[in-house]
Amino acid sequence: MTGDIPEKADFEKALADWFREAEKEENIFVDIRADDLHARIGDYPGPFHRMATCCEVMYENYNPAVDKILQFPPKGKGASMEIRYALPRVNAVPDTGTTLATPAKSFTIKCEYCHGTGRDVRNLNAQQKPCPAFGCGAVKSGLHSLPGKQEDYSSCKKCKGSGVKPGSTAKKQQVGNIYLPCPDCNGTGLTKTE
């Protein structure tokens, strides 16, 4: 931490510590809200908060194959973001104490939410903004990297493979940005076959 300003490494350590605490209690998952994680570091709410960095660290540890986004803020990053992380976490990185959830083998697919554009093409007022599906819009690639093999996945049952949170309609679209990535597949259109 530089003075009173939290840094990315502070959030990474706090999240890894939270995972270890939950694993010691032999939990099979842990629900973590961004505001709670930030409060562990300090200065939230406060003038030097770094909520965007906090959310970035949470997203980096999110694995759509085993974790679930419970609350997705409208702008993609915010205090209300909540992720259910599966335990135990895998692939601890030596020397840093950071825990990652991404297995070594993965495959890349086009983002179904944005049709591979990397932009929020579904919302009329936001078409020049990055795709809100994590892992796509952050790098504006229009692609998702998923762990494992493609044959281990099937079309998402919740969104029927569209990548869009169910309940959105074209009629509602006229009043503003209401389309969001599906919380089960995070806009990929795929979920891991159980």
Could you describe the 3D structure shown?
The protein has 194 residues and is α+β, with helices and mostly antiparallel strands. The protein has 2 domains: 8-100; 103-194, no CATH class. The chain contains 4 helices and 9 strands; from the N terminus they run H-E-H-H-E-E-E-E-E-E-E-H-E. The chain has helices spanning 8-24, 34-41, 51-60, 170-173, and strands at 29-33, 68-71, 82-86, 90-92, 99-100, 106-110, 143-147, 153-155, 190-192. The strands form 4 sheets. It has a 3-stranded antiparallel β-sheet with strand order 1-3-2. Helix 1 (8-24) packs across helix 2, helix 1 (8-24) crosses helix 3 and helix 2 (34-41) packs across helix 3. The longest helix is centred in the first third of the chain and has 17 residues, at 8-24.
